[in-house]
Amino acid sequence: MSEDGDPDGGQSHNNPLRRGFDVFVATPIGVAVSVAEEIPELLAESRRRLELQLGNALFVGRFVVNRKQRELAARLDGLLGNGAQQKVTDADGAAEPAPASPGPERPAPEELEAVRRYEASTRNRRTILNRAGQLLDEQSSGPPAG
């Protein structure tokens, strides 16, 4: 036996039968066993990533669709003359002017959370994350002064 623990006394590297066995039998079996052990972990990680991306896409898609629906409704109201001139009928049937719009519409907290989640899992831009955080803080502390 050699000093490095090789029973062939260091001759196994030169033995073509031993090298052939290593290359054609031992290595493929080792690779197959390793792959079989790692597949469940790889599948779980792939599933987790896919679910995260699909969840983000769903939230962002809902955010965009809701925002555009509101913009379209506002434009249609303006085009059809239903905007500021619209009358509201009270309980007695008397018409009174509709209340003025409160100004630019602010995104709902769930929309801001969707933006934060999407941005954190994709490009992770600090300016967008910080602004979404500011808007969420403003909404949780009440309406802005002004």
Name the descriptors.
single chain, 146 residues, mainly alpha, elongated
Describe the structure.
This protein has helices at residues 16-79, 109-121, 126-140, and strands at residues 87-89, 95-97. It is 63% helix and 4% strand. The chain has 3 helices and 2 strands; from the N terminus they run αββαα.
**Helix proportion:** 55-70%
Number of helices: 3
Distance between the termini: 88 Å
User: What is the H/E order?
Assistant: HEEHH
| Sheet with most strands: strand arrangement | 1-2
| Dominant shape | elongated
The biggest sheet, with number of strands, parallel, antiparallel or mixed sense and barrel status, is: 2 strands, antiparallel
Secondary structure: number of strands: 2
**Average pLDDT number:** 78
Which blocks of ≥5 consecutive residues have pLDDT under 50? 84-88
Q: Provide the β-strand percentage band.
A: under 5%
Q: Cα-atom Rg, whole angstroms?
A: 33 Å
Q: Return the structural class.
A: mainly alpha
List the helices and strands and how they pair.
Layout: H1 16-79, E1 87-89, E2 95-97, H2 109-121, H3 126-140
Antiparallel strand pairs: 1-2
Helix pairs in contact: 1-2, 2-3
